[in-house]
Amino acid sequence: MEFLLILFVIVLAVAIINAKKTGARESSSPKPSYQYRRKSFLMTKAEHSFFNTLNQAYGDTHFIFPQVHLSEFLDHTVKGQDWRGALSTIQRKSVDYIMCDKTYVRPLVAIELDDSTHQQLDRVKRDQLVEAICAQANMPLVRFSSANATTVTVRNTITPFLN
Predict the structure, then answer these.
(1) Residue 102 lies in a domain
(2) What residues form DSSP beta bridges with 100?
(3) What is d(CA 15, CA 19) in angstroms, rounded to the nearest whole number?
(4) What is the pLDDT of residue 134?
(5) What is the DSSP string of 13-53?
(6) Which residues of the chain have pLDDT under 70?
(7) Handedness of CA 138, 75, 111, 106 (dihedral sign)
(8) What strand order describes the sheet that includes 94-101?
């Protein structure tokens, strides 16, 4: 009987210690510094319309990913350069779409849909930098000025870059 009482006290002590550890872990979980909300849409209406056109033209043969950061498809860790500086240059820059092959999900062509914001001076400079970076990386970047581009126009423009 005395053995059972000692065993009960030990089990109770272990349970209390574990409960305190769990409580400490829960109370020390990180709290966000800012508040966030889920967006209603991933793309603008024009981008979504053009996304549908891209999928009509290539959805059977290629993956099309919207809103992709340059660091996802460009390698900034080139030997002999400051990789942090290279990453900093492309960080926070994205393209509207990336087309990839379905076999290896290899990035084949970047696509930008230009709206009126692309005429603003800061955006023009950003676009020129992204174009230069993609060209240097041998990554085709195709620009469309209208979300109303037809499937035929899209195919005629993009297909030469897929070989």
Answers:
(1) yes
(2) 63, 107
(3) 6
(4) 96
(5) HHHHHHHHHHHHHHHTS---SS-----S-SS-HHHHHHHHH
(6) 1-15, 18-27, 116-120
(7) positive
(8) 62-69, 94-101, 107-113, 141-144
In percent, how much of the chain has pLDDT > 70?
81
Q: Count the Cβ atoms, other than its own, within 10 Å of residue 156.
A: 12
Residue 58 domain-assigned (yes or no): yes
Residue-wise pLDDT tens digits, 148-162 = 789 999 999 999 999
118-126 long-range Cβ contacts below 8 angstroms, 24+ apart: 126/93
Model's pTM, two decimal places? 0.76
In a domain, 6, yes or no: no
Q: Which domain holds residue 129?
A: 45-162
Residue 138 lies inside a defined structural domain of this protein: yes
Count of structural domains within the chain? 1
